Amino acid sequence: MLIFTLLSCKQKVVDGIEIGQDLYVGQSLKQNKKLSELITQTLNKDPNALSELTEFWCGGGAGCYDLGFVTTQLVYRIGENDFIKMAEKLTEKQKGSLSGLLSVGFEYGNYTDKNVVTEFPRLNKLLTE
User: Fold this and answer.
1) Total number of domains constituting the chain
2) Is the residue at 87 inside a domain?
3) Using 50, 70 and 90 to split pLDDT, how confident is the model at 6?
């Protein structure tokens, strides 16, 4: 009963952004709350939240693929141009992390024949140069 109660307090979807099963299940309630806040703040175009999101602990493996999927959803929702404005403020290390998250987000997300190069060419250029 306690496990059910704790799981029911976690958010699987934050303002339309889906948190994948492996990431969601592997999180503590505190981690889930933090991720939910970062998603909301990023949707509100807060560059500091994007910075924290690139460094968010995803548990390794499939949980990180799920965080990548969260990231791709954020870019689609915010739009490439506004997302670039936030990403310009990232450190080189954070840009590298974001690039990796987007790549795995496309590879393991619910996308067919899409990738960061074809979907977000200007963002990809910013992150890889």
Assistant:
1) 1
2) yes
3) very low
Amino acid at position 50, single letter: L
pLDDT, tens digit (0-9, with 9 covering 90-100), for 57-86 = 998 889 999 999 999 999 999 999 999 999
Residue recorded with tokens 């936030």: 86
pTM across the whole model: 0.91
Mean pLDDT, the chain, rounded, equals 91
Nearest to 114 by CA among 127, 125, 105, 123: 105
Mapping DSSP to helix (H, G, I), strand (E, B) and coil, where does residue 3 land?
helix
Residue 5, in any domain of the structure: no
16 token code pair: 């339309």
2 in any annotated domain: no
